[in-house]
## 1
Amino acid sequence: MAQDDALIPDLSATFNPNETAPLDVVFAQPSPSTPYTAYASSPNSFLSSCPSLKWGICGTGRICNDFTQSLKILPSSTPVACAAMSSLESAEKFGRKHGIKECYGSYEELSADQNVQIVYVGNVHIFRLEVVEMMLKAGKHCLVEKPFACSHKDAKYLFDLAAEKNLFCSEGMWTRYFPAVERVREILSEGSIGEVVCVNSDFHFPTNDSEKYPDSPLYSKKLAGGASRYAGPYPIAAALCCFPAFPDKISCAGVVDPDLGVDLAGSMSLSFPSPEQNADSDPAEPPTLLKAKGRGVASLNFGFMGESAEETTIVGTKGRVLIHSPAHCPTKVTLSTKMEGRGNSSSVTWDFPLPEITEDIISSGGYYYPNSAGLAYEAAAIARCVDAGKLETPQFTKEETLKVMEILDEFLRQVGLFEFEEEEKEEEVKEEEGKEENKEENKEEVS
Ligand SMILES: NC(=O)C1=CN([C@@H]2O[C@H](COP(=O)(O)OP(=O)(O)OC[C@H]3O[C@@H](n4cnc5c(N)ncnc54)[C@H](OP(=O)(O)O)[C@@H]3O)[C@@H](O)[C@H]2O)C=CC1
Ligand SMILES: O=C1OC[C@@H](O)[C@H](O)[C@H]1O
């Protein structure tokens, strides 16, 4: 896909190329002194210079195809092996398509390949715990598709294991690596829209287009499908990007398929407290409307039954930012600065072209999903982090993944679908019983 030159923006009027890059961009570009403008308006030349990294691809489905294609934009990030759980034939077919030499009929074999430094995990959700645990125990860094796991408990276990093994491990929240989103974070940190007070974000895509009902993994309870796990992580991550604290209230509603027992759509209203605990109650300070920084609300929704605008709007006290559709992999951002008088604002829009795709990508069948060339931003940032010995990326931290997981657990609980609820209750009962037994033993010892 050749880029239309008209889309390449002239950013010089709004960016100062001599400014140092914002912190979050540092690991996405070759050096902190590289002007953000140049990186953003001509991505290929910067992406092509990232450190080398040897990837193993775990899964041979659609997103694994797209991720592997995007590695072709980064000459030094090479897929050296791939594995399919379904069959060796599937792995070999994938390998032939992408020129990958080592093809395995099981993930175990991939985990034993000494040439693989990092594994991209892109299969169905239910195997997350098993597969990521296996890869970490085999000493591989891991990039794991969203959702990172099927519960907060599993995610915490995997991150603890990664830390113990001193390995990079991250959720593939690729949205965060798009220059459009890096620009949004820059706008927020500059204070251009003041304090964020509200985030609206939606992501409904019509699964009828590509997924056979009821057979697709997207509708499968057994494989941990459902709209909240396939689409929900994006709007949740959009809200978390703007508020520092964990929500103090999460109100959810969902549409559950009565036959399949998975959610087909959901909405969430979140309120976020100020992390400055006592800001409101300091009697020495006169009260003001916006004194408690970080306080605000988010309205998020996602689903499989229709196609939404797929936009994210971030409302601040001095203006707002619109992340244009498709907001989970965006190339366009509008900043509207509030002017005097209600309804008055001035706006500026930036376009950030996607990386150009190569002949090699075209001849091997291109991409399945929208804007997948942007996966190269994520892959490049991760190559830089691994090279620098970092165990996570500043763009999307483990703490954020854990927050997403906790919110997803809560959504599933509120719509009556949290599979691990019984397991959790049993554990709580066991813990209580253990405490009681200890008390009894202590009493006996004392007497
Ligand atoms: N970042 C992004 O933009 C996107 C991310 N995703 C995420 O990527 C992951 C995979 O999605 P996608 O590629 O669309 O999925 P696919 O349906 O294309 O399948 C992915 C892989 O999962 C395994 N699989 C598929 N069906 C079954 C089944 N019935 N039982 C057991 N295993 C099965 C297969 O693994 P194998 O090849 O090993 O046999 C298959 O290749 C999900 O986590 C999804 O949330 C999805 C779309 C876009
Ligand atoms: O992450 C995703 O999951 C589902 C897909 O259809 C969508 O395009 C995507 O990026």
## 2
Amino acid sequence: MTTQRTANGLPNGRNGFRGEGELETSSSKEADAGVNGISNGTGTLKLNSRRKVDRKKSSPMLPAFMVSAPGKVILCGEHGVVHGKAAIAAAIALRSYLLVTTLSKSKRTVTLRFPDIDFNHTWNIDELPWATFQQPSKKKYYYDLVTELDPDLVSAIQPLVADVSPHKPADIRKIHQNSAGAFLYMFLSLGSPSFPACQYTLRSTIPIGAGLGSSATIAVCLSAALLLQLRTLSGPHPDQPPEEARVQIERINRWAFVYEMFIHGNPSGVDNTVSTQGNAVIFQRTDYGKPPSVKPLWDFPKLPLLLVNTKVPKSTSHEVAKVGKLKKMHPVLVGSILDAVDQVTQTAAGILTEESFDAESEECLTRVGELMTINHGLLVSLGVSHPRLERVRELVDHQGIGWTKLTGAGGGGCSITLLRPDVPREKLDRLEEQLDREGYQKFRTTLGGDGVGVLWPAVLKNGMDEDDRGGMEIDLERFLSAEGNEGVERLVGVHGGGGEREGWNFWRVEG
Ligand SMILES: Nc1ncnc2c1ncn2[C@@H]1O[C@H](COP(=O)(O)OP(=O)(O)O)[C@@H](O)[C@H]1O
Ligand SMILES: C[C@@](O)(CCOP(=O)(O)O)CC(=O)O
């Protein structure tokens, strides 16, 4: 299923402000105690705003808050990364936004509201299979590393999942049921029967299922939201030491991976990792029982990239399974193709991290571009391209405009083109017109930028009347009625329609 969206071309921004209502939870010491298994993660929560929360009096409702996470592109190494090879991925400016609203204490429901995919479902918290999830042999804590789904727990939520969207067509129902299952698995693993009634409402500016990691952004938003509600995260705030920020990022990423496992079956974890951390990373997971190796690339060059969406729907799990099957049939041959993919990634990583790399130099870009061409060829040989992706190569590469490869799972979805520096403007204009005529959607996007961010409470300054009264509250109605991607960005965007926006805070791990 693909949704058409427009480019927003937002620049990356860094929000160095202290937010209107900044969230400070337990000290890193307390947080680490949690890691060591001593605390069950009820750190203290301090809100520096006029909406002060005094936890001593009672356990008050949390204010509505928002979480946001970016989509990504894989520059090289997709599919190889599922088989233990390295990949390079970078965050993009398109993002998902999750509004978390706590309901009054008389309510006992939890609602998932995903208007982009027309999904809305409410469960009664008291009727969820807590007993199964809380058995000592099954119970997981927020600091645990979960590397596979427990079949008994998956079975326990099946009846609830089966009830979802009964009147929708089968393909849509499957997407809804997957979303419901992934959420319930995470909610029941992290939560408890006393969890407050709440609503999770998500809107995204990322094309769905186009290879830009849309599902991972939802995983990251929900993981961060639940961990914040449980008061197990410290920050984010601008003065947070990078080491402490890194612990929070790692925690969010672990649970986001659980959600991704439910959606995709066998994800590498690269999407959720880059979405949580932001910027760009070299990612590799050689042993699924252990955390992956993640090497941040802080000075990732500003590559001149064109992103093209074929608008052909694809399924990541289908493409990943296809490659898995091919490998089973031809282990040596496919093994050597995956080794070659790894070589491409390692070589590209070397080039992109050279101090002398210049993103405007023809010679530097050619070296990276050639690697992208090789990477695409290897992906074609794994059977994950699509005629619409090959058509982009015909229009771009064969016209000497740049170097193109598919990005993400393939089988449709998006391609990325590294543009040659000397292409005449008219030639680029003609290409863009041709792409438009043929029904492609194109984005000029900046790579890198912030990972998961928090707006606590959900109040923003938008240069409107409300600002005099302390900012505009982002309530459910406003969030749901924001029009299109532009409306969402204008209302809540971390970049606020062009610049940096006060209120949003990020865990900055750059040391
Ligand atoms: N805006 C959205 N709202 C709700 N769910 C979404 C949204 N975007 C993506 N998803 C979920 O992610 C799935 C697509 O994930 P995936 O196939 O990995 O695509 P992508 O390449 O974009 O990551 C959808 O089927 C849906 O479950
Ligand atoms: C094909 C793969 O390497 C990337 C998939 O990316 P996406 O779901 O198409 O955004 C799968 C994975 O890494 O889990």
